[in-house]
Prior knowledge:
- The structure is a homohexamer.
- The first copy, chain A, is of the alpha/beta class.
- Chain A contains 11 helices and 15 strands.
- In chain A, the strands form 3 sheets. In chain A, strands 1, 4, 9, 10, 11, 12, 13, 14 and 15 form a 9-stranded mixed beta sheet that branches.
- Strand 3 (27-33) of chain B pairs antiparallel with strand 3 of chain D, so a sheet runs across the interface.
Amino acid sequence: MGKVVTFGEILMRITPLGNKKLKQSNQLEYYFGGTEANVAISLSQFGNKTEYITVVPDDFIGSAVKSYLKQLEVNTDSIINLNHPLGLYFLEVGAVMRSTKISYNRAHSAFCNIAPNMVNWDEALEGCEWFHWTGITPALTENSYLTLKEGLKKAHAKGINISADSAYRKDLWNYGRNAKDVLGELIALSTIFIGGVNEMNEVLGTDFERTNEDFITASKLLMKEYPNIKKVADKRRSSLNANWHKIISKMWDGSQFLETKELEITHIVDRIGTGDAFAAGLIHGLMHFDNLKALEFANAACAIKHTIEGDANLLSEKEVLNIIEGNLTGRMIR
Amino acid sequence: MGKVVTFGEILMRITPLGNKKLKQSNQLEYYFGGTEANVAISLSQFGNKTEYITVVPDDFIGSAVKSYLKQLEVNTDSIINLNHPLGLYFLEVGAVMRSTKISYNRAHSAFCNIAPNMVNWDEALEGCEWFHWTGITPALTENSYLTLKEGLKKAHAKGINISADSAYRKDLWNYGRNAKDVLGELIALSTIFIGGVNEMNEVLGTDFERTNEDFITASKLLMKEYPNIKKVADKRRSSLNANWHKIISKMWDGSQFLETKELEITHIVDRIGTGDAFAAGLIHGLMHFDNLKALEFANAACAIKHTIEGDANLLSEKEVLNIIEGNLTGRMIR
Amino acid sequence: MGKVVTFGEILMRITPLGNKKLKQSNQLEYYFGGTEANVAISLSQFGNKTEYITVVPDDFIGSAVKSYLKQLEVNTDSIINLNHPLGLYFLEVGAVMRSTKISYNRAHSAFCNIAPNMVNWDEALEGCEWFHWTGITPALTENSYLTLKEGLKKAHAKGINISADSAYRKDLWNYGRNAKDVLGELIALSTIFIGGVNEMNEVLGTDFERTNEDFITASKLLMKEYPNIKKVADKRRSSLNANWHKIISKMWDGSQFLETKELEITHIVDRIGTGDAFAAGLIHGLMHFDNLKALEFANAACAIKHTIEGDANLLSEKEVLNIIEGNLTGRMIR
Amino acid sequence: MGKVVTFGEILMRITPLGNKKLKQSNQLEYYFGGTEANVAISLSQFGNKTEYITVVPDDFIGSAVKSYLKQLEVNTDSIINLNHPLGLYFLEVGAVMRSTKISYNRAHSAFCNIAPNMVNWDEALEGCEWFHWTGITPALTENSYLTLKEGLKKAHAKGINISADSAYRKDLWNYGRNAKDVLGELIALSTIFIGGVNEMNEVLGTDFERTNEDFITASKLLMKEYPNIKKVADKRRSSLNANWHKIISKMWDGSQFLETKELEITHIVDRIGTGDAFAAGLIHGLMHFDNLKALEFANAACAIKHTIEGDANLLSEKEVLNIIEGNLTGRMIR
Amino acid sequence: MGKVVTFGEILMRITPLGNKKLKQSNQLEYYFGGTEANVAISLSQFGNKTEYITVVPDDFIGSAVKSYLKQLEVNTDSIINLNHPLGLYFLEVGAVMRSTKISYNRAHSAFCNIAPNMVNWDEALEGCEWFHWTGITPALTENSYLTLKEGLKKAHAKGINISADSAYRKDLWNYGRNAKDVLGELIALSTIFIGGVNEMNEVLGTDFERTNEDFITASKLLMKEYPNIKKVADKRRSSLNANWHKIISKMWDGSQFLETKELEITHIVDRIGTGDAFAAGLIHGLMHFDNLKALEFANAACAIKHTIEGDANLLSEKEVLNIIEGNLTGRMIR
Amino acid sequence: MGKVVTFGEILMRITPLGNKKLKQSNQLEYYFGGTEANVAISLSQFGNKTEYITVVPDDFIGSAVKSYLKQLEVNTDSIINLNHPLGLYFLEVGAVMRSTKISYNRAHSAFCNIAPNMVNWDEALEGCEWFHWTGITPALTENSYLTLKEGLKKAHAKGINISADSAYRKDLWNYGRNAKDVLGELIALSTIFIGGVNEMNEVLGTDFERTNEDFITASKLLMKEYPNIKKVADKRRSSLNANWHKIISKMWDGSQFLETKELEITHIVDRIGTGDAFAAGLIHGLMHFDNLKALEFANAACAIKHTIEGDANLLSEKEVLNIIEGNLTGRMIR
């Protein structure tokens, strides 16, 4: 099997312990995250070869990033060193009806100083079977957009599977480009669309509702506009409160509508990166299983990530398969 | 807007981590608390000017108390230094059906050594719009009772709003006075009564039941006996177990009965100080909103305090308003 | 009242904090555990005299084990020192649908190097009213089986009550003996069988189902084959997921079937040692109460252990009685 | 060998981590201490039978105290429960030229509520070979003085060895008695005086200087006034700064002057309880060795206590002997 | 006495625990620092009125900054909120011959987005007796330089004392201006120069050596070029290694050369902010004492800061005076 | 440059925090170590390609071991999985004159279950330039000895440099072979001997003294008996106490005696693995520098390892070179 390549910004998450506010304690924990890194890590835990391309500073922080990725068996050979700080975010973790708050410090990060031709795409895409990108990357800077487009074009030309997690975040698009246009251009090069009605509305300029019917109709329309797209998949979250969610996933695979069982997470440990866990589960599933099993695998991966501290899903393929076989009680394994 | 003044004892809470028993670990955390301090702090977080009057030792512990209050923007100018230790309590935090246990060390605290004329009430009440007291203070010593009465008389004479949280605790009344008499005397000087049927029964010598009807009847009777009281408000807690509560609030405002929606806290982080969060929410609400919105605000403040570590509600007015606007799922704010 | 004696292996539990995986952090916590030690400790917390017999290394680790037991008022006079390491296990704590994982390091422990005649049973059983053993001990090595048999024979000859927690774990029986035969031989010397249909099937070679009817039939058959057995008792666990369980207990006391109310633990703190808490509760109950109250006590002890960090139930008789009196909301005790 | 009995107040030490000031962090550590408890614990670590008499509250704090003592093999049978809080002190740990600061909360502790006839001295002194007291106890309250005197008289009558650590602290003597008179009365009943020129000056009303000559002259005078005293021993500390001390000890044994080698502690871990470690070392030494070896043992015990966290010396006789055999480089023991 | 005003950037220091490298642990501690903030805080601990002007983000991080300053009694009324992240730095703490490493993330901070006219200097300088600035501020951006110059001109016009800590750091001067020119322009407005031969060489373009003679000659030359400067003071550090330093200070006061005793810090706790502690000590000293005592106070403040965790000197005037009175052994204060 | 291969047992180090004894706290930290792993890690930090061969369990503990090695860029492709527990040791860290204590649990570890033919030596030694072994490995079991011999023979046949760290530990040789014979046989295949007079005495059966003269004579004799040995190198430690050491190194390179400057570590952070840091420094030095610089590099690597937490030297070549260039004051790097 070929490797999966992802490209994007890695961030350091810095957070007070438990549910404390920053001003309540001078103790912190950190994790590395970033949606494309999380996807690569989860895929390596499932047993796939992966490579992650990003930019880090050339000091002990960049060294810690690479150590983290190597520890989790993600290839770091194409990572670029630039003398700019790592992007990071502070997190105050909420509970029940109290919101979790995030404060970003990423606008002038090492990654935001990337420029076209810095990444050796030919080398990076050698032996690549799947390329994954998200809408965060083209939202950051003109250059991160252009660099991603370079890569996508090369991947497309090589016939590599390309999954697009559109992940639209209005706050990020500050450098002048129109999100709809840019995302459309990049989705046109992709084969799998990860997102739901909201994300399709953003790209299509439509206003479908969050029903299964509209999901199907929107998917068909998306595939019509972007004929390279062969499948649309999404997880849907119902939140009782910050600690208690349900997850169900759906897919339009070009010919039929698939839907998983709903999984309930009554005691969330960490909800960051659960969408990335879904994406990684989907990619792994589509590489190894049929569509329905792939979707169930993605849904289970998303659900079980809520029980893992940190940004990435660290569980094995076997542990996720265990969930879709119906073992939901978390019984002890001696 | 004028300031809110509160008066009472500040305590240090000392607790093992998590759900450990004291003998299980030598690691501890501490917080400062005390009902009137918690009310002042919450009101300052809502954007009000506040002043808190208490007694602390003249050493690094008293200095830490003042730092804590200053950090949270409570004026400490009237705080008295006495060469006696700070009152404190140890807490073993229970779970589910296991009770939380408290062991007090407060009977000979700095605050219990207060004496009349130590507080310069004229200075402290200058520019004061609201004075808040609780039944803990007159329960401690003859002198804390007399000092509070001094303050209440001055506040009453100045036409300041006075809220009384009767907070009856049988264990405290050990210095010889009768709780019913003392509380009655002080409630007579107050304009808002915070408490429910149990508290009114204590003051009135009645035995009303915990129904809405009885709440109304009791409130009317209370207002008859203490005609300065214009409103009676209370929160009502239903406990599934130590981790899972529901909170609903009600008010008799002299002419009508008001009741809030019920809020459910499925994963309690810290339940200490939730009654104080209600009181602070009520005072803020009555200073800024109509009665019903004030009650909803108080109920939401009480509920969301269950998600905050430590004794005081550290959330802003905006965060509490967010709850009463129906945003109960704790969604992430980036 | 005479003392309760238990015999078995003590283990050190080593675990990353919270729900972290071992590779995520170099911080760990440890607890001492082991089913028979947990039973002795819980019984000492209930106010009984207890003695625990085990083997520990003659160094700072063995010294820490004895300190732990002494701290919790278990007599350690019969503990043997051997120059072999303490058995231990690593624990990664799961959540919701993620399984908790255990990795053992016990096969060559100090306890596994025990040999017959090392324990001075006559001395250890002096003044003994109750002897408790579990199926873990005879599963470890030929010598641990023989040493236990020595003790059981002496205890039987002295007319001491003997409780057998059959605790069948297939993975352990590696030294050549057949579990069914060995357990049968030892149960024949015992007076109380702690276990359910699964455990009775293992011993009897039957295949009863997990119904109350089959529990009764199986119990009768067991008592017929092992006429010293006078009662069969078991707790039954329903798991919503790793954080949320229900516990109900049942007994066949030779003439009637008894069943408790079901207790729900919505937020589990630590589920290790909950079966041991049941056994200790049952022994204490049978020593002090009637059968039904004993069973309720055992069920409540099991349930409330889920709220205690570490392997042993550290709560007092009064705290468990409080549960069976229906106080399930965990209200604060000041 | 008979047991050693000590009597005095146990205190909880509460301290921020590292060198932090209390206001810098809400994390704390606690230890139990108190000079007479520390002596009993160290003696039990050396292998002696010990009993400690004190007063603790009848709640989870008192229970934690007893657990601590039991863990370290000190008999707690004579400990009294009173419904008053445990005495405690807060500690901010200095470094180099920054002073460590202590803030006490002990004036109304459980121990300070002791009264004559509460201790059953006859029972407590059965099988007692040595009784140890310090000047802290009679300094606290009239009743603690009277209770100690009760015990000393009984011990004296039984011909038990009695060591007096005069430990004069001016701040404590607030209840009306004159320190010189009270200490004199109690020293008159004692056989060993632990203290140096300063302490003897306090008791004798003299003004000897800190020279060896004056130490000898003062000791002779003390023995003349208090003829039961047979030996005077003291450790002498030279402080480069808060992290770096030297310890040397000296004794007048009635006929000759003895002095130890000086031990240097270049990196102090915890200096609390080092005087108590000296006292325990001296008592153990005098019970088991000749005078010079006893003094060397006491000096080494004092020095090595500076490397132990917490209030009590937890090292074994063998570990202390190792020091006086000249093994000062702390080489690893595998 | 009037207040002391300082102006500059506040930074968050983020550091792994102990001597760990970032990649060794995900646990961190944070402190707020920044040279001018540290000076203001130390001056407020000495009992002076202080105000600190900076820029912070308008979120929970900016709120934590203000809480920190308020806690330590620094007036925050003139602090500006801008929607840019807080500057920060990561610190790996070395030991002995291993260097401490710092990685900055400050180039696009909130403070670096300051612009002229944002600070209301007239308001901020009302009642101001002393203004303190460092060479960090004009090194950051054109606008931070211009804003500082605005303030200095106003302060100069009002006849306020102005201390200049030239703190030349070559790495910072990246925005186009020449350090020598800019610093000269600002020093011309100042009355006290804090720095040694190196700093004077930088400003004067000379190459004096680090001898007392050259210090005097350089000081005279500096005063000739910048006649507003009335005194030059500096601390001089001798480092045995990262844990063991000596500090001595010297001053040319316009007519004579003053030098302090040398203080030795054998066990450094935290060396960040020790230069700021010197500056604060000097300012406090010159406001309250004669020149020599001021210099001794500054030297002692610098030395004792090495024993405090975090960036700012938290000790009181009394604690520093204690050092210059020769109390260097850090004896315990009960 | 070719890779360096090391072979041996990896161990988990488990230790209470700070200087606590195990019984004082249930908090622990863990590190992975083992002398040959430490050498490989340090060499990878210096920029060399490395491979480490060991045996680990096939569970989350083995997975954590591999993650640790990968994080630090050691190739793990030849690591064997066996279903036996990881060897480990507990460490109580002493201070000053208090000894550090180690308690091992390694006798039945996964590594001790290795057998000949399990390691594919041909594959592992492909591209290998240097092979490093220590005397720990042949001391463990017959099979670990035989497996090492397999590897050494292959390496010898390929003309690979082989360094032997004889590391004689009497306690380990329990399986029946004679240490002198076995070590001699393996040294005969090696080219560099790492050890001093003590180690040579052990192998040669001599009793040379710890003088430079005897070191030279012993080295010559060793080279005569084992003519493949071309160099003998050793570090020499002088311990003031557990916190304060000096390190000096010497070499007989076949024709001349070399000796380094002595380095002083006044505040040791962690002394485990300092000998391994020397070995790695020597190998790196001999691969890249002349003999004297190699020895200075090894000595500096050994010294600076004392400032790193954990078992392995994590510093870069540049950081070690910095020491031998005389930069010993640990000055801050911004």
